[in-house]
Structure formats: C-alpha cells, structure tokens
Amino acid sequence: MLFEKQNDWSSLSQDEARQFFIDIAAELGLDVEHFTSDLDNDVYAEYVAMLEKEAVDLGLPGTPATLVNGEIVAGQGLPRDYAVWDNFLSSTIAVESLAEIQYDAPPPMSLEAGKGYHARVVMENGDEFVIELFPESAPQTVNSFVFLANEGWFDGNPFHRVLPGFVAQTGDPSGTGMGGPGYQLPNEIDPNLSHDKAGMVTMANTGPDTNGSQWYITLGPVAHLDGGYTIFGQILEGLEVVEGLTPRDPSTGADLPDGDRIQSVTIEVVDQ
C-alpha cells in the first residue's frame, strides 16, 4: 500500500504523513491504536535504519531491487509475477543439481572402425524411434553421444523445446535447456550434410565449439541452420513419433505442458 500510494505521501510534512499512515492502517484493518503507538514511539526505527544501512552497504540502488546469484538486479523491469521467479529458481536449482553427474572432459574415443551405430530411443509412453549415427562425419560427437547414452545420461530427459515445423530438442536432464555434461565439443561440419528435411539429428549449441549433450531433431527443412551446427545422425525409423511430440516453447513463459520424456537410449552396433 505504501508503494502504491507513494506519490500521495512522499511530499507531505511529518505531521501530515503521520495521519496519512494512520488512515492507511485503518483502511487495511490494522489495530490502529497499536499501530499509532508504535509509530509515535519509534518502536521499529532502529530496525528500519539497520535495514537501510545494510542495503546501502550492499550497493542496492533503490527499490525494487534483488540479488540474483550474488549480482544486483534492480529497476522497474523486474518481474512482479511469482511464477516467473519460481520458474527461474527451479531452473537454477535443477541445473546446479547436475554438478554431481557431470564429467571433467570428453570421453576417450571408443568407436570401432568400420562399424555403424544406431540409437534406439524408447519414450516413456512406449513409442520408439531409431537414429542412424554418422561417425564418419562427426566422430567426436557420435563418440560422446554413445558414451552419454551408455551412461544413462539421456534416460528421463524431456523434449524441453518442441517447435512444430522447426525442431524438437532434448539432451538436458534438468529440462531447462541450460544443462550439459560438464565438457564441450568442437563443431564437426560435414558440407555434404544439410538440415534440408525433417529427421536430421544435430547438436544444439550456444555458439561455435560449445556442443555438450543437447541435441535436436529437425521437424522440417531448416537449411538456414547449415554450417553452424553439427549434424551427427538422422531418423531411420519412427519419424512419426518425433513429429507427434507435444509442442513446447519455453520462450512463451513458465506455464508450459510437461515435455514428453525419454525412457532410455540404447546403442546398437551394426556391420556396415
């Protein structure tokens, strides 16, 4: 109420402000006699002064302001919606929880020469699709994907970003789109491969050579992505399963449907 009526009381004299605050107390249904006594006797003056000093010492520029991961964020642009903050905190905690299962470096190369690799993805609803991996085009990427799959990294992962006609993205156990395995891989660009159709399997990244564990499947021709992302496979079976994933766009806000989850990813070694 004080913030809402700040323009009404900020220029008042002390006596006028006193009566204004007492009137607000009455409007809010407070114990007016108790409120007036505490106000006149400076019961909370020392407490308020201590908080003001703490804010100044922290470098807070004013209100509203908050501390986010130790950094001051202030201004009228701060979200007022509880759901936004709840989503932010939940996402931050989820990403931090991955620290216990991350790796210090990419796995050593373990792919067998002359062998082909398929990844069978079983969804929690029982649907399946199979990815043909491209070790010749993206050996480091495929080696990492095989390693993470065998480690169970992808088990339980949601498709946290599904944009019909564009891509379906997964590979982050936190489901936030911010998680990774603790290491990064370089881009491996094969000019003979293109995002020119649905079903291409590609590493997601935040810039060149920042590939981790997140990957996406194209849901249509998106050739404008060529050259910036490592294509390391394509859907061999079950493209209709991928195309039927629940749409989910994290950029639209926090009130989103649950992403369809992967139950398991099993690697199958095949003769070429």
Poorly predicted runs are: none
Q: Using the CA coordinates, give the radius of gyration.
A: 27 Å
* Nearest-integer average pLDDT: 94
Largest sheet: 8 strands, antiparallel
Approximate helicity band? 25-40%
CATH architecture heading of the largest domain: Beta Barrel
Number of strands: 10
Notable characteristics:
272 residues, elongated, 10 strands, two-stranded antiparallel ribbon, Cyclophilin, 27% helix, alpha+beta, 2 domains, 7 helices, eight-stranded antiparallel beta sheet
Question: Care to describe what's here?
Answer:
- The protein has 272 residues and is an alpha+beta fold.
- The chain has 2 domains: 91 residues, no CATH class; 157 residues, Beta Barrel (Cyclophilin).
- The protein is 27% helix and 20% strand.
- It is built from 7 helices and 10 strands.
- Strands 5-6-8-7-9-4-3-10 form an 8-stranded antiparallel beta sheet.
- A hairpin with a 3-residue loop joins strand 5 and strand 6.
- Helix 2 runs antiparallel to helix 3.
What is the secondary structure topology, with strand pairs?
Blueprint (H helix, E strand, L loop, with lengths): L5 H4 L4 H14 L4 H9 L4 H14 L6 E4 L2 E4 L7 H15 L18 E9 L4 E6 L5 H13 L9 E3 L3 E4 L29 E4 L11 E4 L12 E7 L1 H5 L18 E10 L1
Antiparallel strand pairs: 1-2, 3-4, 3-10, 4-9, 5-6, 6-8, 7-8, 7-9
Helix pairs in contact: 2-3
Sum this structure up briefly:
This protein is an alpha+beta fold and 272 residues long. The protein is built from seven helices and ten strands. A hairpin with a 4-residue loop joins β3 and β4.
